[in-house]
Design a protein that fits this description.
Blueprint lengths: L2 H23 L1 E10 L4 H5 L3 H10 L1 H4 E9 L2 E6 L22 E4 L4 E8 L2 E8 L6 E9 L2 E11 H4 L6 H6 L11 E9 L17 E7 L2 E10 L14 E3 L1 H24 L1
């Protein structure tokens, strides 16, 4: 091998090695808060403004939450800062059970691992990351010190809210043989190329920059603080305790349990 050619190959190898090493060392911590609009439906139409405000105050812990996203170039964890109580002032006693668990995303391997707990049983949901086909726009805005670009997408509701349930969902799915048209959710995101990682809060990922704000349905997640390469190194690992299950399997499992509990409750009332 000619010395010149050897030097070129060595330079390329060194460049690839140092880039990979830099990617492994690079990490960050982003703080987000969420705000959700309260949906009261027909029941809310019969309430006064004072009653609505009172209800909103009772549900504040569920409508407004704080999260931490730890990330590097390949992986991230999304954790709730303060876990809400099982009841948490909700309109039913299951409010806390349907909150998001600790989430780990590996964008290199296209893997999601999320820890969920329901009535004392722990599940380890393992599946692929949600496939989001982003449409990149040219509109920009400032979030803190970062210039962000707008992106939008449409994703099936079941892909984003698979861990969340309501009595209304149970009624809609009572006839399992009935084909139900999949509801699509519009996603609006703002990402910054100044932090060139394809990470984001919750299930969101895949843009050419960290997602600092994202809205879907009645919930918005907004970044309030970013720390790049913090002095104290953050360990990013996936949850590892619980019964292994897919998103679809978890949804089916919990729905069956809800039906069982509903039937038991109705049986007691009829006695």
């Amino acid at each position: 091998m000619k010395p010149f050619l050897f030097k070129i190959i060595a330079l390329i190898f060194f460049s690839i090695f140092t880039t990979q090493l830099s990617a492994q060392k690079f990490q960050g911590k982003a703080y987000y808060f969420s705000k959700s609009k309260m949906e009261l439906g027909n029941w809310g139409a019969r309430m006064s403004e004072a009653q609505k405000k009172q209800m909103q105050n009772r549900l504040k812990d569920r409508l407004e939450k704080k999260y931490i996203l730890n990330f590097n170039m390949q992986e991230s964890t999304f954790l709730e800062e303060d876990k809400i109580d099982a009841i948490s002032g909700a309109t039913d006693s299951w409010g806390g059970y349907f909150s998001r668990g600790d989430l780990h995303k590996n964008i290199k391997e296209n893997k999601l691992v999320q820890s969920q707990e329901f009535y004392g049983k722990r599940f380890l949901v393992k599946d692929k990351l949600v496939n989001i086909e982003w449409n990149l726009g040219t509109e920009t805005k400032k979030i803190g010190n970062y210039t962000c670009y707008k992106a939008a997408a449409m994703v099936p509701k079941s892909e984003l809210n698979w861990f969340d349930f309501s009595w209304n969902d149970l009624r809609q799915n009572s006839d399992e043989t009935k084909k139900i048209e999949e509801t699509m959710i519009v996603i609006e995101a703002w990402y910054t190329p100044q932090i060139p990682v394809a990470q984001g809060p919750a299930e969101y990922w895949g843009l050419p920059g960290l997602i600092l704000e994202v809205s879907a349905g009645n919930t918005t997640l907004l970044c309030s603080e970013i720390i790049l390469n913090p002095k104290e190194k953050v360990t990013i690992t996936a949850p590892d305790k619980g019964e292994n299950i897919t998103k679809k399997g978890y949804t089916s499992n919990i729905r069956k349990k809800m039906v069982e509990m509903r039937n038991n409750r109705m049986g007691r009332r009829s006695r």
